[in-house]
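Retry 2 of 3 after timeout on previous attempt. Resubmitting structure tokens to design endpoint.
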């Protein structure tokens, strides 16, 4: 849509901005969630192997779990028959 209305350069800038936004959103949410978990359970910071890197470990695990769930959902959705598009008209009862 942006390419048709504003040209390829603006469409490319908009696409890059969306990708950066999606990446930063995931990073901020996982960092905040990890900090909240460690704040609720401070003894996690004392794990011998991980230690002070517990925030990074929890964040990476959370991102990997979300990626796995998203990929699984995409695979399952692709196996289903095509459903009616949301924007198509539906019969109304009078």
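Retry 2 succeeded. Sequence:
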């Amino acid at each position: 849509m942006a390419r048709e209305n504003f040209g390829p350069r603006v469409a490319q800038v908009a696409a890059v901005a969306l990708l950066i936004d999606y990446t930063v959103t995931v990073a901020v949410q996982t960092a905040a969630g990890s900090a909240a978990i460690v704040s609720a359970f401070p003894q996690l910071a004392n794990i011998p192997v991980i230690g002070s890197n517990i925030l990074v470990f929890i964040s990476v695990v959370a991102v990997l779990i979300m990626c796995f769930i998203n990929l699984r959902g995409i695979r399952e959705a692709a196996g289903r028959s095509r459903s009616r598009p949301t924007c198509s008209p539906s019969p109304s009862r009078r």
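Attempt log closed. The CA atoms of residues 7 and 54 lie 46 Å apart.
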